[in-house]
Design brief:
CATH architecture: 3-Layer(aba) Sandwich
Number of strands: 8
Protein name: NAD(P)H-binding protein
Distance between the termini: 43 Å
Number of helices: 6
Radius of gyration: 17 Å
CATH topology: Rossmann fold
Keywords: NADP
InterPro entries: NAD(P)-bd_dom (IPR016040), NAD(P)-bd_dom_sf (IPR036291), NmrA-like_oxidored (IPR051164)
Strand content: 15-25%
Pfam families: NAD_binding_10
Bound molecules: NADP nicotinamide-adenine-dinucleotide phosphate
Length: about 180
């Protein structure tokens, strides 16, 4: 299977790319910063592509069986900005159709399912829910992952000194 990874330079994308390669898959990284991607993965094929435009993705997706996405909404993003998990996914779906990609795999999050529960609402979760709806309506077979927490986060966003922030699903419900 030939997999295109869009987001191999990201926190979760890096280890996922290494593991997919170790597992023996043929990989092409599609990155907006080709040099940065090459520094991380000197032995993997890398193509330039940006989720902001469909046209930049069609060529790099040629011959690909599965496009794999580890996208995020960064803390600096505002609701009216471009979001990779919104317009970026629309562009990716269109490019995937043009290139004949057979499956899209997308890393989502279990926590976003608590949107609208007990009055809780966050625009970030609304976008993540929309991403799932877009993929399901795309007509392209899909695989969507709903993880809770990755170990990679423990030393970054979840660690403050000797404390680790752990929000489990029961706590989110109670809040
Ligand atoms: N951390 C956790 O414990 C956890 C738990 C559950 C779910 N998740 C999910 O994991 C997902 C991934 O998170 P992450 O922290 O790995 O994200 P991240 O580090 O912010 O990585 C985002 C990736 O998207 C790429 N990207 C951004 N804009 C792009 C564009 N216009 N075109 C093409 N690529 C673009 C980035 O490339 P550049 O290097 O060029 O910026 C980067 O590789 C999140 O959606 C989150 O919901 C995480």
């Amino acid at each position: 299977m030939h997999i295109a990874i869009i987001s191999a330079t990201g926190m979760i994308g890096k280890p996922v790319t290494h593991e997919l390669r170790k597992a023996g898959f043929s990989i092409r990284i599609i990155a907006r910063d080709v040099d940065a991607a090459r520094r991380l993965f000197p032995d993997i094929e890398i193509a330039a592509g940006d989720l902001r435009t469909t046209a930049s993705l069609v060529g790099p997706l040629q011959g690909i069986d599965t496009a794999y996405l580890n996208l995020s909404i960064r803390q600096t993003e505002k609701p009216a900005d471009f979001h990779t998990e919104e317009q970026g996914i629309v562009n990716l779906i269109e490019a995937a159709k043009q290139a004949g990609v057979r499956r899209i795999a997308y890393l989502s999050s279990i926590v976003m399912r608590y949107q609208d529960m007990d009055g809780f609402s966050w625009w970030v979760f609304a976008i993540k829910q929309k991403a799932v709806r877009l993929l399901k309506a795309s007509g392209i077979p899909y695989t969507i992952f709903y993880p809770s927490c990755f170990m990679e986060s423990l030393n970054t966003t979840q660690r403050v000194g000797r404390f680790v922030l752990q929000i489990d699903l029961l706590c989110v419900r109670a809040i």
